[in-house]
Amino acid sequence: MTDAMIEFRDVSKRYGSLVANDHLSLTIRRGELMTLLGPSGCGKTTALRCLTGYIRPDEGRIFIDGKDVTDVPTHQRELGMVFQNFALFPHLTVRDNVGFPLMIRNLPKDQRTKMAADALRLVRLEGFESHYPRQLSGGQQQRVGLARALVYRPKVLLLDEPLSNLDAKLREEMRFEIKELVTRLGITAVYVTHDQAEALALSDRVAIMHRGRLEQVGTPEEIYEQPQSRFVAEFIGLSNFLEGRIEAVDGASMRVTVGDLRLTAPALPHTGPGQRVLLFVRPNEIELLGPDEPAGENVFEAQVEKATYLGDSMDYRLTFGQGLALRVQGDAQRRLSPGAPVRLRLPRIRCWAITAG
User: Fold this and answer.
1) Contact in structure between 286 and 346 (CB atoms under 8 Å)
2) Architecture in CATH of 240-355
3) With left for phi above 0 and alpha for psi between -120 and 50, is residue 41 left, alpha or beta?
4) 138 neighbors 32 (Cβ within 8 angstroms)
């Protein structure tokens, strides 16, 4: 038994001149929750449809549990699917909706009833067996969809934007329920979304897609803290970018010239003096210093241009140097007014570099 449950091997899919998936290679491990994340049109839904068998790739192969399923019909791939629009039958009870996949597999009624009850217990909907979808809340309907996807114990659970039709509070509740359920069952799951917060909260690993290609694959921490391209850094959370040139490399650190500033950052592999780089730092990781705090590495002066109250924090636009600006988020208990001078520290360990150009 290998560690890989799903493998995309050099998969491409085109629609005329549009390349939806461009030589996609990705391994999803047994028992992990992998999220395909990216903006609309990036190719994530096409990848999912290739995995389900609804469409066939033009090139490449797809494997599930070591078996080449590229030409295997959808109903033989042992997949459970949860949709964004719930896709429940309005004229069937909750029990019958959940048991429908068992009915089309010709399982005996008493077995269907028991398996449906087990699946509803998994999603905490005991006692709702005789209800109809119209009698349920959005969150309860989505739980029915989960139960139906899991009732025949598939090898893989696929979730296509499953929370997009729920309100913000329900989305937050359901994302944790889905994560807990997938972890408890030990099932392999593929989750498709364009919502960065969902991806970071749910995933064991995240695969970020852009224009049909994989930009980066890693844990939520790796994706957020160490993006490998400007696209990833901008797509996941808020980022500041400062264009500079490497002045010197000293072991694990390098000095970078940004305008008239000299900043220190973790060294970037395979780079050297004279090379252009983009330094990026998150707004919430920039430190606003008090007047009595000592100067030091990556400390400089700026001026508040704009200040916005966000409830639990203040959001500032600060200007410095020769027409440079940073977005900074600080404690709401300390409020700075437009025009006020301020001293900043860009912590070296949080001042990441990306190759420019």
Assistant:
1) yes
2) Beta Barrel (2.40)
3) left
4) no
